[in-house]
Amino acid sequence: MLDRDAGRPTSAAGRGLAAGDGTTTLITDLPYGPEAAEVARSAVTLALRGTETDVLADARLIGSELATNAFVSGSPPLVLCVDRRSLTGGGLEIEITVTDGGCCRPAPASPTAPDEQAESGRGLVIVDALADAWSLTTGTHGSRAWCRLTHRPCFSSVGA
């Protein structure tokens, strides 16, 4: 298990888009195949519509990497959950979770960058670089990758 944060992620049950108390949750099944990454990017875009471009780009990349990792290392079914919470005083907290049916390999002790010539293996390194907190738990009956992005708008004051 990898865990950069002691906090526990939360998610809503069911499928679809739910809203309440400043929180919006999107839960969707992902195809078990290479197209899981594109479906995850589209779902993250839907869940985070109206979000600043740079935050959306990071969230889309993370969703894509977690979905790809689940397809390559896990088994069906793949499920994506995107939670979007408005923060008091402005800002946004985003949690992205991808679960799968499980795998035989244990989670790596820490993400390590592959050799420069490698064509894959950078997913968790990317998640580690972009997310404020994340964790990966693997098991034969289910695996779960989760991350949190927190965005607080920068306010500048112009003085005279």
From TrEMBL:
The keyword Secreted does not apply. The keyword Ligase does not apply. Residues 34-143 form the Histidine kinase/HSP90-like ATPase domain. Keywords: Kinase, Serine/threonine-protein kinase, Transferase. CDD domains: HATPase_RsbW-like. Residues 1-20 are annotated as: Disordered. It comes from the Bacteria. One of its GO terms (molecular function) is protein serine/threonine kinase activity. InterPro entries: Anti-sigma-factor_SerPK, HATPase_C_sf, HATPase_dom. This is Histidine kinase/HSP90-like ATPase domain-containing protein.
